[in-house]
Design a protein that fits this description.
The radius of gyration is 26 Å and the shape is elongated. The chain has a single domain, classed as Serine Threonine Protein Phosphatase 5, Tetratricopeptide repeat. Helix 2 packs antiparallel against helix 3 and helix 4 packs antiparallel against helix 5. The relative contact order is 0.08. It is built from six helices and no strands. The N and C termini lie far apart (80 Å). It is an all-alpha fold.
Length: 136
């Protein structure tokens, strides 16, 4: 076994000193929390700008990081829900514009599964069911 002084001498001479692998970052490290906050901030900004698909990419990156910070976990869940609703709302709008009542109905159902009291989704669902001849 080589002591600290022996290792220093070996290093100066270019010899083989014992090496240690760097310790892996602990799950939920401070570095992950900083990165997670940045991804969440950007996802939040993108949601506010009406860009749910871009926000979803930021959330994918955020989900890849580990954290034990409950506030960050809650914020990730809330933003994920918001992005899912916004994505389905955009899908419903595109479907209505294209005259695809079935796709609009499906998007409205997905919104209502996440937010049962969403009036706009309920209205889309009711109007597309009436158009399809089904009872609301």
């Amino acid at each position: 076994m080589v002591g600290a002084v022996g290792a220093a001498v070996l290093l100066r001479r270019g010899g083989d000193a014992p090496t240690r692998e760097p310790a892996p970052a602990a799950a939920g490290s401070a570095t992950d929390d900083v990165a997670l906050r940045k991804y969440l901030d950007e996802a939040d900004r993108l949601v506010k700008d009406g860009r749910p698909l871009a926000a979803e990419r930021m959330l994918d990156n955020a989900r890849a990081l580990a954290t034990k910070d409950h506030d960050l976990i809650i914020r990730l869940a809330v933003l994920t829900d918001s992005v899912a609703v916004d994505t389905q709302r955009a899908a419903a709008r595109r479907a209505l514009e294209a005259g695809d009542a079935a796709a609009a109905r499906e998007a409205a159902r997905k919104i209502l599964a996440l937010r049962p009291d969403d009036a706009a989704a309920a209205k889309i669902l009711a109007s597309t069911q009436v158009d399809a001849g089904a009872a609301p």
